[in-house]
Every structure is written in structure tokens, then in C-alpha cells.
Design goal:
about 30% helix, Phosphoenolpyruvate Carboxykinase, domain 2, 9-stranded mixed sheet, 3 domains, Phosphoenolpyruvate Carboxykinase, domain 1, binds sulfopyruvate, 18 helices, Phosphoenolpyruvate Carboxykinase, domain 3, binds manganese (II) ion
Length: about 625
């Protein structure tokens, strides 16, 4: 044991907290905590065990520190982020890399030494006058081949409280494993604060907002920010570390939901689904009739020739806009239950009720949001109208708060994955649902070629089409080509790999109208379920296997007994748009040609074959081809 570290901890921690920390027989834990206590200089340190009283201490601290305020619901609180801090900050999120490791142009990086120096400067005495919370968590179920222990240091009780709702406790795991533990590390400070609505305190020095990822030491630093995507260690910060570890060890860490689908006979099969942020992941996983294991991050391992999946998390950091009783009954009900929930960046109306975009047809005239007292038409200093709630308003809640939580949520072996869905925000190319021909075709044309229009989940311009392979581009810590190859290898040698599908909830007609209703995704999920169970056949088209009209009529009839699915709707949704597909292939080829060093050659072959099939079809049928033609 490093006596210097122990001595320092003994000096800086009170007796009770010192004891809790050194009960963990792992010098790496002591050294790490000592180093950052010394650097950040908090006024006090609280070590949180898995004990209910400790967790309650954090909950109360979030209120006492004015990071959260009580709402009308007994277990409901609200948190505001600075209004310029309500999405992931891609620009200031950087990998700190040794000079020898180059991960490619799309990945924001800087030399490790320089980055560490800079972030240590920012962290110097940053916790002056504050309490430091030390928390232990586990990614994946505890005691399982998936488990990754994590150590979080933060001076934000809101962050520590959110993590409590979203992750599995890990103090006992650290005690059990002692110095065998190899763990992810996170250091967060919200920095100096200023007052916002409801007297809540928000990060003030946004110019010094940083999220720096040190892959070598599996450590992430986050400063001068509160927004969950920048601060909650075990979420996207951990996903970036997990992708690197997975790549080194031959498994996958994915930006994917995990759900159970009930067949006609009541038996369950499990799907994962990759969608970029704010593109339907949570709403797919909670559409009703089925079960949920996860809505954001899945870990996948090959065990005995099968792909097994777990949720890295245990809660939802869900998107509020659009949740209402008719479009999203499951989430609506949970949000009105007595489950423990932190709402963020909503409007708080009279009587302490949260309000968000799309909750009902009308807005209240007044309320309180990050800007203080809010009224309809309120403008900021620059004369811009302040909306009542942010488009990226969120809620944090344990999955157990949902009635449809799957009993396998904490199963240490995970569940067998039978299907994988890829979906982006694509207004003009992909049909609403389609199966790939096989694993290789799916990984390349559905996943590696995925593009999506940007959303409010990240700071910056919205609606710009960007490449987002596997919906994971924002979190990649390895070269894109290596990442694609890992996927090909992962399922390529399996006798019966999961089926790969694409969905597109955002397809529009030529006049810009959406061609799908929000709830149609229930039908597409049932169709995919029946395909996996080999209960129905499909139409072979140049881009994949599309549904037959008659099958969709039957499924629509079962899911929505009052709806008649017309031939006209089917044709408008499933017409193959050949010029758009060819343009997309060209963009994809160009993107990967610029990253040729790691890109597997199969990618170009598969795209080329698809191009030929599309050109043949165009010669035969023209640019826009009804599915009835195939
Ligand atoms: C996402 O943006 O993909 C989210 C929310 O799930 S967070 O990453 O935490 O910002
Ligand atoms: Mn996400």
C-alpha cells in the first residue's frame, strides 16, 4: 500500500469516511482518490457505500446544495443545467492519445501529455468549499462476465444522485474483488456556479467546459458542466472507454436498446437496436406489449456460439419531448407514478408540476425554468425567445419504474440476441423496415452506412446529415474501420447470427410530410419478430428483404384493430428510391475511401454489389419502384 496516499487520505477524510475507503483492499483506489483530493482540494469528502443511509445522504445533498428542487410528486425533483449546457459538448470532448495512436479524422483528439496538463490545471483547487462525493458502481449486472467496476469522483450531488438511479451499486463489488479489480475512473467537477431559476445553481465557467478521455488509464475528466451526457461517468464517458476495451478483448459495446419481444405464443425473443440520440431508441423499447432491458447502451459478448447482451445501465436518462398519454403510454404512466425521478430542463408550473414539449396541445402561460420566472414570449438578452422547456429536457429513473421491465434485467448471463435494428433520422432514402440478406450485408449496408440528421442531443446545428456508423460515431474510441471489422468478425463466424434490420421512422414524401405515424413502429417490430421466428416470407429487392403487403395488413389489423392499412400507403412507404440509394452508396464509398487504412475490403465489395443490383433494377423499372414489382 502506498503509505503517502494513505497518510494523505487520513489527513483529509474524517474517520468514518476514511474507514469506508480503506476497507477496499485496492491501492489503485487509494492512490487515485488521494491524487484527486490533493489536486481538487474539496472542503470535505463523502464516501458512499451501497447502504441506503449513504444513498439517502446524496439525495438530500442534491436538495441542500440547490442542484435539485422538490416537485409536487413526493419522489420527484427537478434540476436545471445552464441553458448553454443542455446537450453533449462535442467540440470540447477529446481523447487524450499517445502520439502513436491515431484514431482518425472524425475523432476529436489531442496529445495525451498536453491534455493531461491542461485538465489538471483546470482541476486545480476546483472543489474549493465543496464536498467531494465518491461513488462505486458496476456496469452490466454484478457478478457476471460483463461486469465492469467503476469509481466516480464528483462534487455534484445531482450527478451522484442521477448515477444512483441509472447504475448498479458497486461498493460491495470493490470490497469483494479487492486488488483484482480493474476499474474505469471518472473525475467530475461542476466548477464555479451561478444561480438560475428556482434558486438552483448551474455551472458558470462554460468556457472551461471539458470532457477529456484518457484511454490509456481508462479515466475520464469532466469539468465546468452539469448536463448528464457530459458528466454522468457511467453513461457516454464509460461507453467510450468500453468501446476500446471491447475492441481489445473481442466483444462489443454499443449505443443500443435491448428489448424483449413477445411472440403470438407468448414466448420471448430479444432484440437490440441502434439509433442516434433522439431518433426513437427509447420509444421503440417502450412501445408497449413487449419488455425493456435497456434504452441506451448494450454490451454484447459471444458465449457458447450465441450473442448474449446486457444493459450496461439500470435506468433511463430519457427524452421528455413528445411523451404524452397517447403516443407513449408506458413512459407517461411511469412519469406520473411515485417512482424516484429527476426531471431536467423542463418548465415547472404552479404547484411544482413539470411541463415539457409535446406533453399536451397547449402550453401553460407561465412557470419557472432555467431562466427564472418564465412567461409566454419571454426573450433573452439577445432578443431571442426563450422556449418554456428545452428540446433535450430529460428524466432519470430506474428501469424498475416502468411496468414493462424485463425480469432478465439483472441476469448475469444476459439474454440471447436474435435481431439487431439500425435506424437513423433519414427523410428520403430507407423504407420504414427492411431485413438485410445476411450478417455481412447488414453490417455494411444497414450499420456502417447509417446516416442521420443531427438533433438537440448535442450542442450545435440541428438537421445536418452526418455519417453515424452503428449510431455510435459520437463515442468511438477506435478507428471507424477497425470498429466495422470488429462487427464483421463478431457475427461472421456464427452458425446462426442475429438477423439485421433497418428501420426508418422519419421517411417523408416529396412534399415533406412524414409517411409513418409514430405508433407504426409497433407494426415494424412485430414484422421483424415474425421474420426472426421464420413465420413469414419477404420480398427480395436490391437493398434487402421487404415486407409483403398482406403481412403488414394482417399485423396492422392486430395491433390497431380500427386501422385499415391501404395499398396506397404501402406503396408510398415501400417504394424503392433508387436515385437516393445510389447517392447514398456514393457518399458511403467516399467516406470509407478516405479511411482506407483500417476499413475491411468487404465493405467496398458489398456496396459495389448493391450498386449493381440497384442499377439493374433502374434499367428495368425506372427510378422509383413499387414493391409490387419485385
Ligand atoms: C444521447 O445523447 O445519446 C443520450 C443522452 O443518450 S447523453 O448521451 O447522456 O447525452
Ligand atoms: Mn444515447
Amino acid at each position: 500500500m502506498d503509505q503517502d496516499a494513505i497518510g494523505l487520505l487520513e489527513n483529509r477524510l474524517d474517520g468514518v469516511n476514511f474507514k469506508k475507503l480503506i476497507a477496499i483492499d485496492n491501492p489503485m483506489v487509494h492512490d487515485f482518490v488521494a491524487k484527486y483530493v490533493e489536486l481538487c482540494r474539496p472542503a470535505s469528502v463523502f464516501v458512499c457505500t451501497d447502504d441506503g443511509a449513504d444513498i439517502d445522504y446524496i439525495r438530500k445533498a442534491a436538495l441542500a446544495n440547490k442542484e435539485e428542487a422538490q416537485l409536487a410528486g413526493e419522489n420527484h425533483t427537478v434540476h436545471f443545467d445552464n441553458f448553454r449546457d443542455q446537450g453533449r459538448d462535442k467540440e470540447n470532448t477529446k481523447f487524450l492519445l499517445p502520439e502513436t495512436y491515431n484514431i482518425g479524422p472524425e475523432i476529436n483528439a489531442m496529445p495525451r501529455d498536453k491534455g493531461l496538463k491542461e485538465i489538471h490545471r483546470v482541476l486545480h483547487r476546483i472543489m474549493k468549499g465543496k464536498e467531494l462525493y465518491i461513488r462505486f458502481f458496476c456496469l452490466g449486472p454484478t457478478g457476471s462476465p460483463f461486469t465492469i467496476p467503476c469509481l466516480q469522483l464528483t462534487d455534484s450531488a445531482y450527478v451522484a444522485h442521477s448515477e444512483d438511479l441509472l447504475y448498479r451499486q458497486g461498493y460491495e463489488e470493490f470490497i469483494r474483488n479487492g486488488n483484482k479489480n480493474r476499474f474505469f475512473r471518472f473525475v467530475h467537477s461542476q466548477g464555479r456556479l451561478e444561480e438560475a431559476g428556482l434558486g438552483l445553481m448551474v455551472s458558470r465557467d462554460l468556457k472551461k467546459r471539458r470532457v477529456y478521455i484518457d484511454l490509456l488509464k481508462e479515466t475520464v475528466f469532466s469539468t465546468n458542466t452539469q448536463y448528464g451526457g457530459n458528466t454522468i461517468g457511467m453513461k457516454k464517458l464509460a461507453l467510450r472507454l468500453a468501446i476500446k476495451r471491447a475492441s481489445d478483448e473481442g466483444w462489443l459495446a454499443e449505443h443500443m436498446l435491448l428489448m424483449g419481444i413477445k411472440g403470438d405464443d407468448g414466448s420471448m425473443i430479444y432484440f437490440t437496436g441502434a439509433f442516434p440520440s433522439m431518433c426513437g431508441k427509447t420509444s421503440t423499447a417502450t412501445i408497449g406489449g413487449d419488455t425493456i432491458l435497456g434504452d441506451d447502451i448494450a454490451l454484447l459478448k459471444k458465449i457458447d456460439g450465441k450473442i448474449m447482451g446486457v444493459n450496461m445501465e439500470r435506468g433511463i436518462f430519457g427524452i421528455m419531448p413528445g411523451i404524452n398519454a397517447s403516443d407513449d403510454a408506458t413512459q407517461w404512466k411511469a412519469l406520473h407514478s411515485d417512482a424516484e425521478i429527476i426531471f431536467s430542463n423542463v418548465l415547472v408550473t404552479e404547484g411544482g408540476k413539470p411541463y415539457w414539449d409535446g406533453m399536451s396541445d397547449t402550453w401553460p402561460d407561465r412557470g419557472i425554468n432555467h431562466s427564472g420566472d418564465w412567461f409566454n414570449g419571454k426573450k433573452d438578452d439577445l432578443g431571442r425567445t426563450i422556449p418554456p422547456a428545452h428540446k433535450n429536457a430529460r428524466f432519470s429513473m430506474p428501469l424498475e419504474g416502468l411496468e414493462i421491465v424485463d425480469p432478465n434485467l439483472h441476469n448475469p448471463n444476459g439474454v440471447e440476441v436474435s435481431g439487431i435494428i439500425f435506424g437513423g433520422r433519414d427523410s428520403d432514402t430507407f423504407v420504414p423496415v427492411e431485413e438485410s440478406f445476411n450478417w455481412l450485408h447488414g453490417v455494411i449496408t444497414k450499420a456502417a452506412a447509417l446516416e442521420s440528421e443531427t438533433t438537440a442531443a448535442t450542442l450545435g446545428k440541428r438537421g445536418v446529415r452526418i455519417f453515424n456508423p452503428m449510431s455510435n460515431i459520437d463515442f468511438l474510441s477506435i478507428p471507424i474501420g477497425t470498429y466495422i471489422k470488429n462487427h464483421l468478425d463478431f457475427g461472421g463466424d456464427l452458425h446462426d447470427p442475429p438477423r439485421i434490420f433497418s428501420v426508418n421512422y422519419f421517411l417523408k414524401d416529396m412534399s415533406g410530410q412524414y409517411l409513418n405515424h409514430k405508433s407504426d413502429k409497433r407494426v415494424w417490430v412485430r414484422w421483424m419478430d415474425k421474420r426472426v421466428r421464420n413465420q413469414i416470407t419477404a420480398i427480395r429487392t436490391p437493398t434487402g428483404l421487404m415486407p409483403y403487403y398482406d403481412d403488414l395488413v394482417e399485423i396492422f389489423g392486430t395491433v390497431f384493430p380500427n386501422v385499415k392499412y391501404t395499398e396506397e400507403e404501402y406503396i408510398s412507404q415501400f417504394t424503392l428510391r433508387i436515385p437516393q440509394h445510389l447517392a447514398k452508396i456514393k457518399r458511403t464509398q467516399k467516406m470509407y475511401a478516405a479511411r482506407i487504412l483500417y476499413t475491411p475490403p468487404e465493405l467496398f465489395e458489398v456496396l459495389e454489389e448493391q450498386r449493381e443490383r440497384l442499377e439493374d433494377a433502374r434499367d428495368r423499372y425506372g427510378n422509383y419502384v413499387s414493391p409490387f414489382k419485385f
